[in-house]
Amino acid sequence: YASVNSCVGSNIVLLTQAFRRKFVIPDFEIFTSHIDSLHETAKKTSGGKVADYIPQLAKFSPDLWGVSLCTVDGQRHSIGDTKVPFCLQSCVKPLKYAIAINDLGTEYVHQYVGKEPSGLRFNKLFLNEEDKPHNPMVNAGAIVVTSLIKSERESGDRNFAIGYYLKEKKCFPEGSDMTSILDFYFQLCSIEVTCESGSVMAATLANGGICPITGERVLSPEAVRNTLSLMHSCGMYDFSGQFAFHVGLPSKSGVSGGILLVVPNVMGIMCWSPPLDKLGNSVKGIQFCHDLVSLFNFHNYDNLRHFAKKLDPRREGGEVRVKSVINLLFAAYTGDVSALRRFALSAMDMEQRDYDSRAALHVAAAEGHVEVIRFLLEACKVSPFPKDRWGNTPLDEAIHFGHHDVVSILQEYQNNYKHPEDSNNGKGKHSQENIDSMV
């Protein structure tokens, strides 16, 4: 017992979550099979060029491609070349900004750097109207942030030029040594990671600043919130607006081919593939991110009610079905035709039953909601004959509760109803047309 207790004691919460399937992604095996498929699809994406202006980066094979993820509960999965070390490069920018905010506070840091997208190249010699770098995700802003917290150097002439420009404009804190600041900046950009370790960094941001592996608080909630906000608006170079529009998740790319992707409160992902597009982002990484939010409802503005065709890995299959049935029957109970119309348009099964085998038509008939009855029969083409646990049909319910208008409608539809086997061809198409006509 003592030996078991010593092994389990410190991990009892983790083990309890595992046995109860209470992790943020309950069906992790199914989820990771989808991730593997997305990785394989992106692997076929061609194009791009490995960055060659930094000699160490030019040595990487363009065929390298890896994806690692780590959830806020510490669930981990990797596929591809995830153990190959590479430099963080610009992927370090959100991390050092978060450290600066954590140590010095938002107000102090933003005395020296702005919060707006620049609309310019990341290494442009340009400041905003207040003579500050536009944001911490461009080189000028990252150098200033480095000054606040204090291999690549030989190819860093552009950054030295930016440094002198910032010094001339008095962007650094008083008494700062520009050369030592740039040395530190280059060291931070040269930090070596793998996809696996990078995914834990991303997961720490997804987890509000607490490392999901150690349970240690690394960053304050304020630092994480500010960092994710800027990653969302400025993290992907000149592609930031497009990425925010199509993917809708905080991210940061680097010229080494990495993309640090955060799904808040769910997981962090590190993608890595050296070939870059003309804007400096990993070609395969961008494809993977697009495919990820096409399959799962991770986009910040995916609405769970209207994107029913997207998968939600945060729920177990049974939980999704239970909530679906509850929402459907409650809308029928309250006579909420608008809600029923939304459900129908999002491809919900309008004939699904509860534990007593009662369908929405049963509930609407018992409550006497004529508009709901008409919508279900005319637009959704549900069967007027479903029987519940006790053998009662919606017509029986309407008769029992004295809803004569509903009785008339149901009798008419029962007399004219064609069974599915008689009209299977084109049923889905006609149902959709009927629903569209009632929008």
From TrEMBL:
<dbReference type="Pfam" id="PF12796">
    <property type="entry name" value="Ank_2"/>
</dbReference>
<comment type="similarity">
    <text>Belongs to the glutaminase family.</text>
</comment>
<dbReference type="GO" id="GO:0006543">
    <property type="term" value="P:L-glutamine catabolic process"/>
</dbReference>
<keyword id="KW-0040">ANK repeat</keyword>
<dbReference type="InterPro" id="IPR012338">
    <property type="entry name" value="Beta-lactam/transpept-like"/>
</dbReference>
<dbReference type="GO" id="GO:0004359">
    <property type="term" value="F:glutaminase activity"/>
</dbReference>
<feature type="region of interest" description="Disordered">
    <location>
        <begin position="417"/>
        <end position="439"/>
    </location>
</feature>
<dbReference type="Pfam" id="PF04960">
    <property type="entry name" value="Glutaminase"/>
</dbReference>
<dbReference type="InterPro" id="IPR036770">
    <property type="entry name" value="Ankyrin_rpt-contain_sf"/>
</dbReference>
<keyword id="KW-0378">Hydrolase</keyword>
<dbReference type="GO" id="GO:0006537">
    <property type="term" value="P:glutamate biosynthetic process"/>
</dbReference>
<protein>
    <recommendedName>
        <fullName>glutaminase</fullName>
        <ecNumber>3.5.1.2</ecNumber>
    </recommendedName>
</protein>
<dbReference type="InterPro" id="IPR015868">
    <property type="entry name" value="Glutaminase"/>
</dbReference>
<feature type="repeat" description="ANK">
    <location>
        <begin position="356"/>
        <end position="378"/>
    </location>
</feature>
<dbReference type="InterPro" id="IPR002110">
    <property type="entry name" value="Ankyrin_rpt"/>
</dbReference>
